Amino acid sequence: MTVIIIIAVVGLLIYFGTRKKSEQTFIDNNQSSNTSTTSGQTNSTRQKFQSKISDLPFPDRIDAIVWHIKAIDKGLANGDLELTNLSYAKLIESIRQQNVTENGSFEDHLQTIRKEYDEFRAYYGLEYPQQFLPPSERKKKEPAQTSTSQDNTLVFLETLNFEELPKSVIKHIDIVRTISQWNELGLKPKKDQYGRWSDIKRQERYFEFVGASATNPRHKLSLETGKRITTKPYFIKALVEQGIPLEDFVDNGDDLKHFIKADDLFVEKNYEEALKEIELAISIRATSDYKELKKDIQVKLGNEDIVDQQFKKHEFDIDSPIHTGEIFDWFKALLKNKKIDKVISYIHKTNDTLDKLAKGEIKPKIYGQQSGDWYSYKKEDFNKNLFRIFDFNVLQLEQTDETLKMLDLFIKLYIGKEIKPIESIADIYVQWKLKDKANELYKLCLDKLAGEEKPRVKARLTKKIDELTS
User: Fold this and answer.
1) What per-residue string of b and e applies to 73-108 under the rule 16 or more CB within 10 Å gives b?
2) Alpha-carbon torsion 47, 50, 52, 53, what sign?
3) pLDDT of 5-39, one tens digit each?
4) Terminal CA-to-CA distance of the chain, rounded, Å?
5) Cα-only R_g, the chain
């Protein structure tokens, strides 16, 4: 559902990229920026697909626009409709302000996003967040607060990106305090004319105050103890890695210790030990993040059943694992089990499903409906990166009809610029004494390099062709 927003804002970002070459910009997915709900919840910071945009500077409120888009994407992925609804409203307000700054240059973008937001709220039966409506449109006028009641109002400071937080901010993140306590610390939360808490900006990043409640047990404990209400395991891990003790969180059970160790082992590619640790974490508290990490580990270990389950789960939403990149790990697991027939079948099914989604012949069942152009783009993205199903450093293939069929299918579909995958397959053909097929692929590599200044690569390929024909 968020693709319309992404397409609309890409134009906006390109505009600023050309206007300010010193502030180069480009949008999308390996975002390792993370969104949070009002209780500090969202997706993991260990993303499979990482966006570079959150690391780059933008003028005015462009940073906020990008963050809100990612928050919408994560909210939809997690089924967090409250986060998604609020993020839509924040995004529209940010673009509205940018539109004013640019003298109406983005009115069309704004109308497109508003239309999609209307469709989203109609689909889920949600109301427009009252705090983002003009005062005249609010159901009830907010009562004026006395100075004393304002001082006792509870808020906490949240972030949309837990990576490499400024030292001046990290000590305050996700801790509930009264306004008077925040004022004493010098941060001074303020509301704008519409009653919304204003963002603060530190080191080119935005941080937002969020209302808390004394009736919420976790918020109350944070107020009394100074512990953090961060709940998402990956966010807690990110803060721990920046020097925050695990004991400083409201949630600090042994399950988190096992999870953190499991994730570290996963990054180190020690999958057997990682599986043991995550199973210990799940035995204590079975959260969705723990279960997802376990699936990722099992895929890396070549668990064919998990792969089949994942393909079945995303049967009508195959664009999502392509977008994150996890689909290529599924194929690697099948190759590890020498299930060549399944690799071929799933490649065909993936492309066929994307064609049907693009034409509107089928509808997604997990995520929101995207435009036809989105699905066509994801098909192109899939075939461009199809080489990622192979790990040529350790790949061991047997010469069978099915294997040849799979490699021929790859050559037919692959549209990427990199020639290394094609050359590697040609090298395999040489080992199998299929000289004609190898020769054909080496020449294909040279054709792809036409017009490029790569004399050493061309010389290497030419030498291989000469050795085959000599």
Assistant:
1) bbbbbbebeebbbbbbbbbbbbbbebbeeeeeebee
2) negative
3) 554 444 544 444 443 333 333 333 333 333 333 33
4) 57
5) 26
Length of the chain: 470
Which two tokens mark 433?
A: 């004494």
Q: Say if CB 242 and CB 228 are below 8 A apart.
A: no
CA–CA distance, 274 with 259 (Å, rounded to integer) = 9
Which residue shows structure tokens 């919420």?
216
Q: How far apart are CA 229 and CA 36, in angstroms?
A: 11
Torsional sign, CA 46, 51, 57, 58 = negative
Phi, psi dihedral angles at 205 (to 5 degrees): -130, 145
Residue 319 three-state SS: helix
Tokens of 137: 């449109």
Express as a percent the part of the chain with pLDDT over 70: 80
**Residue 188 near residue 182, CB atoms below 8 Å:** yes
Q: In angstroms, what CA-CA distances link 400 with 127, 186, 312, 367, 386?
A: 59, 70, 27, 39, 21
Q: Is 154 left (phi over 0), alpha (psi -120 to 50) or beta?
A: beta
d(CA 312, CA 293): 18
Please give the DSSP secondary-structure letter assigned to residue 38.
T
HSE-up (13 A, CA, CB side) for residue 198? 9
How does pLDDT run across 266-307, given as a tens digit for each residue?
Answer: 999 999 999 999 999 999 999 999 999 999 999 999 999 999
pTM: 0.59
